[in-house]
Prior knowledge:
The complex is a heterodimer.
Chain A: E1 2-3, E2 9-15, E3 25-32, E4 37-45, H1 51-55, H2 63-68, H3 75-90, H4 96-121, H5 128-134, H6 136-144, H7 150-153, H8 158-164, H9 171-191, E5 200-201, E6 204-205, H10 211-221, H11 223-245, E7 259-261, H12 278-283, E8 290-293, E9 296-299, H13 302-307, E10 309-312, E11 364-367, H14 376-386, E12 395-397, E13 401-406, E14 414-419, H15 426-457, E15 475-483, E16 486-495, E17 498-505, H16 507-511, H17 523-529, H18 543-551, H19 556-559
Antiparallel strand pairs in A: 1-2, 2-3, 3-4, 5-6, 7-8, 8-9, 10-11, 12-13, 13-14, 15-16, 16-17
Chain B: E1 25-32, H1 38-45, H2 51-56, E2 64-68, H3 77-89, E3 96-101, E4 118-121, E5 136-138, H4 139-146, E6 152-156, H5 157-162, H6 178-182, E7 195-197, H7 204-218, H8 234-237, H9 248-252, H10 280-283, H11 292-295, H12 320-346, H13 350-355, H14 371-385, H15 391-397, H16 406-410, H17 418-421
Parallel strand pairs in B: 1-2, 1-3, 3-6, 6-7
Antiparallel strand pairs in B: 4-5
Amino acid sequence: MAVQQxxxxxxxxxxxxxxxxxxxxxxxxxxxxxxxxxxGAEAMATHFRGYEIVLQGRDVRDxxxxxxxxxxxxxxxxxxASALACEMAFGIQPPPTGIVGRNLLAALDNxxxxxxxxxxxxxxxxxxxxxxxxxxxxxxxxxQAAARGAPTHGYKRISxxxxxxxxxxxxxxxxxxxxxxxxxxxxVLIGGKYPHPQTIVPGGLSAKIDRSTVNHMFLRxxxxxxxxxxxxxIWDDLTEFFYAADPRxxxxxxxxxxxxxLGLWDDPYYYDGTFETAAGWGQRRWATPGAIVEGQLRTTDxxxxxxxxxxxxxxxxxxDWNGGERLPTDLVGNxxxxxxxxxxxxxxxxxxxxxxxxxxxxxxxxWNRYPMETGPSARxxxxxxxxxxxxxxxxxxxxxxxxxxxxxxxxxxxxLEWHLPESWGAFERNRARAYALVHSSLVAHEQxxxxxxxxxxxxxxxxxxxxxxxxxxxxAAAGLWGSSRGFLSHHMTIDKGVVESYQILGPSTWVxxxxxxxxxxxxLEEAVGATPLLSTANPERCIDVLRAIRSFDPCMPCTTx
Amino acid sequence: xxxxxxxxxxxxxxxxxxxxxxxxxxxxxxxxxxxxxxCTVSAMGASAPGIEDLVMGRVPALPKVVLHxxxxxxxxxxxxxxxxxxxxxGTLGAPYxxxxxxxxxxxxxxxxxxHFAAMGVGADLPQGAAxxxxxxxxxxxxxVALAPRAAATIAIGTCATWGGIPAAVGNxxxxxxxxxxxxxxxxxxxxxxxxxxxxxxxxxxxxxxxxSELMMFLDGLRPxxxxxxxxxxxxxxxxxxxxxxxxxxxxxEGVFAHEPGDNQCLVEIGxxxxxxxxxxxxxxxxxxxxxxxxxxxxxxxxxxxGFPDKYSPFYKxxxxxxxxxxxxxxxxxxxxxLRRMSMKTGNREPMWDNADEIPSAWDRAxxxxxxxxxxxxxxxxxxxxxxxxxxxxxxxxxxLPQSRDILRQKGVNQEDSVDVLGEKVISREEL
Lengths: 561, 431
């Protein structure tokens, strides 16, 4: 501990590893314990595996199965992004049931992953043992505080919720593990395996989807209608409790409201697999693509989103690439930066870690030079704000909120509404993920209904696969999709059926990115920098810094490939 | 007290407990090399037993697990790493098991302070201080520090077992499996070589079951289970996945899928199942559901040491399938036709043979049989009942039940029933 003459109590903090995030993340910085402020923060991705390098020079048919394995938390999303890129390169599109099947997999991915994040990764930060250790006065308060959502979730007092969030022994922790498995059971019925599904192919699915399959999936998706409501009520209660106890909790993990997302869930009758029409099919997704900068919606056009993307390696363990631009423009003539994924190369240079030099295996992606936040929260923000989603059965954006009509399960039919939050920080990120669980459960429900309808109709609509031939010439293609954590793109170029370059840009690369060459830190670093240290009993533990980091749910295998 | 390693061989009876109940505690240190976290995700999906059952000590026969896993831990940073250091120094005071997820990169040879996979900093490990106390500590340093004292060492997933995709041709990380890294002479403190649970991702229950079996062995409750020559749990991996494949019957009858989505055997669209050792089709991916070919996906050999390069390009038919598949089409075609004949008689109640009528309004079922069917049925019965009681003959003497076709006998007018729905949903012609 270094108590300086200025009266500050500056201490270095180092979390290596930051536990309860997926994969290896380390975090370093300095905190002033007297002022309760964070003075500097660096997010470090501490592994590199070489997936993009392995993919170079391989038969393009290998792309899906290899790139899927870049991330074991959202391998299915990578497989799908890769399949979209292959389809764009081959000039094909899956038949409607193939698209709906993939949509179902994407929704189930979220239904498996969000409970795991909310209750096994971030939840314990708000659990009884942690709150009692860091803020005993809050625990006393929680014992007296009635939970408004009790009729929905069944926990009478806030303290009951906190006890439920305890690692391994808590009821909410155990329930999340159980529900996550239910979603996976549905997933493997057409995915074969979880993670790393075995059935995603260019042109659709290699799966037999019959009535039993869909019925089984339906019966496993239905409990999430109730569970989603329950989870939303729990995170509403927790958030409001902390805000009421101390308004400064709004500043924990505060961010500038920069969001980027590519949308998710394709319209089975609209998606045609081409880049040229991406602006159209992008708008028809069950989550609208878009970019929001400092709270203002800039675009919902996939072309505009794609062309603004750049990746920098100034503070990353890579060498800058000198090669000429592979693609000076995209496929419709928009100018592309040399730092665009279609032009980027991966040249790893492992070395020592230094704070002003290179300190992370993550690159620094920026959109129009802004650091951007990704995640289910970005998905909800953009979808709600854009208000351009076509009519969907169970959801309706309003420009300032997203209305979610939950059909009757064991709980009665309910209408939930997620509002654009007044403040933006860790608590709102968690709350948004809880509402995104409801959103995904409704998408899953609607996909099952569509799938049953397509099976009833039969004929070409009920097919799951479109045959293809591999083009002989040069092709550039992109899979613009999303994982449970949002933005996911696979950019590739192929020649003679062989992968020439392959670039994966995952949601957590945006979030966990290091400083860019313009001196702006990554979103995680910025959020930690804005975090007040509010623990009264054990400030050294920096629980609010950890809450800020975990609210992003960074996934390190997605961050670096 | 430091864990005293016993002599190698069977642990049975070494530390027995009354009625097979265990009071022991095992620490499990989970290390990640070039991993995708998928093995962790898989293990969290396990339920026979579940990770939470092991951690909470809920299974009476099993020792309790103290799990040190970054994704599930309470502490971060130095507090989290402290037990790792104690284990490396031999001061933990309890036996521990090392689990490695992800392949081992060749980063021990990197100059300066580079790493490909790291956890903790130099100061967390006395031997690591040479790297600089604040520099990321390589996973490989941890493996070297922890493996020699471990009661058992488990490689989970195809990366940690055989190198997997990070070891695929073209990569620059020099990746390998744990056995390659530790070498042929390696034995755990209890004398067990590296245990390998492959799969990309592996079945969660394959891992938790193997861990449980090993703990029961180390605890003296059971003999060492049978591992094959590559350290795989033999009872899981000795069979090819094809032998239990729900589509193997199509192969036998010589019927093959032409494209993804078809329900037949997938060999001709790139399935390697007949030559891959895996149990996913009988165990399922999770809770006995799913499994690659069960759901219609091809096997790409993801449990095998040759994965991925010896099984790619994916979706190209394995060369061997041209011979075996060709032969199966010839003899399978004959077998299939004979089976259809047997099914024709099996699909008729014996009484229908007597009445020469099938009381079904579904138009595909009709009562009359062609002469060929009758002749083949005659000989089939001869063979079936030869040397024993001839039920077919006895059946012929059986009188037809008198209340057959009761609605017609009683003159019930079916037109009345139309009123229930208001109209006939399906007309007779539609069937």
